[in-house]
Amino acid sequence: MRPVRTAFAGALLGALTLAGCGQSPAPAPDAAVASPAPSGAADFPVTVEAGNGSIAIAKRPERIVSLSPTATESLFAVGAGAQVIAVDDQSNHPAEAPKTDLSGFKPNVEAIIAKKPDLVVLANDADDIVAKLTKVNVPVLLEPSATKLDEAYDQIADLGAATGNKAKADELVAGMRKQIDELAAAAPKDKKLTFYHELDTTPYSATSTTFIGQIYGLFGLTNVADKAPDAAGGYPKLSAEFVAQADPDLVFLADTKCCAQSRDTLAKRPGWSKLTAVKNDQVIALDDDVASRWGPRVVDLAKQVGDAVQRAATE
């Protein structure tokens, strides 16, 4: 985990002794009734180590703009949902996220500033948006695509600390670690199963060096894309012939929503009807979003992979 500054919340005060005696003193006429501080407010100021360096956040943000679907999911998962006032046009989970026409791919600095944010979370620095927002004193956290699970956990911890929800974020990360470790440990690994992960119908895939590839690696699976002639930074473009020759035991489709792919559509591709995965009904339909994000729902992805491995190993 990257280090974050923490502080202890102050103790609550109460007239417990008087209440225990059955007495309830009236407040003095001129006494001011203080409103309770928001949960986590005492944790500030805080410094978070993000992709854009050490970011100091003076007080608990109450107007957060998220331009990253993964960050949106994480913010709501750590308990910061009520602090989020706008999310980008690709953020579709959870359903209550305040979706807008803001773009994380082509960010409009004026449109973002118009939301009067006290924190903006991004996954990429498109059009030098970090510098533009920093110039007008808007705190920005750059949380880029994770390349391994520890980075995903770290980003959730970052967002928890940055929003005054550190305890909930730490609890979430601990739970994710435990579930994924247990799922991976329970997976049978003696059959040396091979797999193919499809990103789209081109088809593009992902090697073991990528975040998604490393998830599969936890379950002892061998990635057929690792033998692609051109790794292309971890996302090689494969040919239909390459996949047919590799003949994977399992096929995971991450293009079911975008491109309506299924076992039936694969069977119609030249030479693919004879794939072992197609013949044995070992084609697993993934949710495109879950399979492409590195937030809390990576546990759901791990469960699907684990179930598929268990099923294939027993047949």
UniProtKB/TrEMBL annotation:
GO biological process: cellular response to iron ion
One protein family per Pfam: Peripla_BP_2
InterPro entries the record matches: ABC_Transporter_SBP, ABC_transptr_periplasmic_BD, Vit_B12_bind_prot
Domain Fe/B12 periplasmic-binding intervals: 63-313
SUPFAM superfamilies: Helical backbone' metal receptor
Record keywords: Signal
Family matches, as PANTHER family: MOLYBDATE-BINDING PROTEIN MOLA, VITAMIN B12-BINDING PROTEIN
Name this polypeptide is given: Iron complex transport system substrate-binding protein
Organism: Streptosporangium canum
Taxonomic lineage: Bacteria, Bacillati, Actinomycetota, Actinomycetes, Streptosporangiales
